[in-house]
């Protein structure tokens, strides 16, 4: 009689493949960055179809079109909210060459939230425009850094 062999379903990095497949079938998936606070913002990973649909509806954007890529762990979406829970922006990162890269970050109805512009007239009455990164820009860059950090440093 042959001894029974227990099937090892733990894949790379100790993630149980069977559990992950079941979560994806239920419409949930894994994100290595859990809900966290960065500066004045609450960062919430959107790890299910329902969360993405809610974000798309509330923010009036097209993030629902990224659901399949998120489930395949090729793309990740985050809801950036005030500490009071008000949605401020939706952040999207794409996976390329084993690393997460900033793709887009937009406010309600796809408004620009990563930079602000200052227009003024110089001494020759020429209108000049200067652009500056916003706090959301720096928060988004910190999310990218945390997603690419060694696993022991992720919240």
Largest sheet report: 5 strands, antiparallel
Helix content bin? 25-40%
**How many separate helices?**
4
Low-confidence stretches: 1-7
Mean pLDDT equals 87
Number of domains: 1
Q: Tell me the fraction of residues in β-strands, as a range.
A: 25-35%
- Sequence of strands across the biggest β-sheet: 1-2-3-4-5
Shape: elongated
Please state the CA-atom Rg, rounded to the nearest Å. Answer: 20 Å
* Helix-strand sequence: HEEHHEEEEEH
Quick recap:
With 155 residues, the chain is an alpha+beta fold.
Key features?
155 residues, alpha+beta, two-stranded antiparallel sheet, 7 strands, 25% helix
What does this structure look like?
The chain has one domain. It is built from four helices and seven strands; from the N terminus they run H-E-E-H-H-E-E-E-E-E-H. The longest helix is centred in the last third of the chain and has 14 residues.
Layout: helices, strands, pairs:
Layout: H1 17-25, E1 36-38, E2 41-45, H2 49-59, H3 67-71, E3 75-82, E4 87-96, E5 99-106, E6 115-121, E7 127-133, H4 135-148
Antiparallel strand pairs: 1-2, 2-3, 3-4, 4-5, 6-7
């Amino acid at each position: 009689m042959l001894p029974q062999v227990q099937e090892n379903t733990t894949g790379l990095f100790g993630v149980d493949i069977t559990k992950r497949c079941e979560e994806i079938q239920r419409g949930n998936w894994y994100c290595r960055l859990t809900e966290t606070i960065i500066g004045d913002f609450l960062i919430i990973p959107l790890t299910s179809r329902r969360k993405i649909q809610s974000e798309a509806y509330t923010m009036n954007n097209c993030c629902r079109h990224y659901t399949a890529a998120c489930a395949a762990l090729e793309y990740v979406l985050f809801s950036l909210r005030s500490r009071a829970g008000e949605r401020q922006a939706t952040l999207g990162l794409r996976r390329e060459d084993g690393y997460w890269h900033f793709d887009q970050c937009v406010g309600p109805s796809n408004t620009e939230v990563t930079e602000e512009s200052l227009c003024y007239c110089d001494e020759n009455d020429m209108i000049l425009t200067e652009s500056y990164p916003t706090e959301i820009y720096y928060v988004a860059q910190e999310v990218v850094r945390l997603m690419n950090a060694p696993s022991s440093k992720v919240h």
